[in-house]
Amino acid sequence: xxxxxxxxxxxxxxxxxxxxxxxxxxxxxxxxxxxxxxxxxxxxxxxxxxxxxxxxxxxxxxxxxxxxxxxxxxxxxxxxxxxxxxxxxxxxxxxxxxxxxxxxxxxxxxxxxxxxxxxxxxxxxxxxxxxx
Amino acid sequence: xxxxxxxxxxxxxxxxxxxxxxxxxxxxxxxxxxxxxxxxxxxxxxxxxxxxxxxxxxxxxxxxxxxxxxxxxxxxxxxxxxxxxxxxxxxxxxxxxxxxxxxxxxxxxxxxxxxxxxxxxxxxxxxxxxxx
DNA sequence: CAGAATCCGAGCCGATACTG
DNA sequence: CAGTATCGGCTCGGATTCTG
Lengths: 132, 132
Fold this sequence. Notes:
- By secondary structure, chain A is mainly alpha-helical.
- Chain A has a single domain, classed as Orthogonal Bundle (Arc Repressor Mutant, subunit A), CATH 1.10.10.
- Chain A contains six helices and three strands.
- Chain A has helices spanning 3-10, 25-33, 38-47, 52-59, 64-76, 98-131; strands at 50-51, 80-85, 91-96.
- In chain A, strands 1-3-2 form a three-stranded antiparallel sheet.
- In chain A, β2 and β3 (91-96) form a beta hairpin.
- At the A-B interface, α1, α2, α3 and α6 of A face α1, α2, α3 and α6 of B.
- The first copy, chain A, binds a DNA duplex (20 and 20 nucleotides) through α4 and α5.
């Protein structure tokens, strides 16, 4: 057993003896971040803070409904902040919190890995498809 | 803009000008890994290779159906290998591939982050709930 | 033992219309 | 501008049953 494997497996699972249905720490994060849009939104906010409709235009193919939900979830978890500027018309600005920024670093590790192995994954899928 | 933010945002989005509906490299990975069980399965296989029913017992609250699907997806993407040992009764062994092992390292970065910020996220959720 | 087939229900996602 | 309300479709996870 390598160091990396042992280290990675430690916190991936709930503590031994606890109810496995209880989401472990990782699941608690993944369940929120691993949806259709969260990473995309965080990615855009990593470049600059944005107002609602500006982000809506930037992403392009997300409905207002879903964008609203995604933003609220990210705000709820503390990844982003929501600032209302009193004016007419109203303006609401979304930005990464300090925690949100800190998440970009581990995220980058995954991105780099995905980037490095994307071709291998694609090839693996093709090979799998040809086999069956 | 910090280095980390700029670096993280680069590959998070599809190339400018391309169809945003096309999944970008990250989405291609997250869409597979970010489901209910994949990380859990990879976590168990990080400890040792396992046969089907052994893993079923270890995880406990996953149906055979879903475990089967999860394993096939991970195999399709090249994270795990599936080895059939001809015998009666048949035995099928699942193990991490080299690529699967290499993924444990970036994964660990996320795990460490999740571990370090889990309390903050929980508190953020509580605070959010009290506000509304 | 290692799955496949079938069916069901919940939740996510989305389009559209409407509001302060 | 920044959302909410309503409704529908579709995918995912799950329970159950059956098979080589």
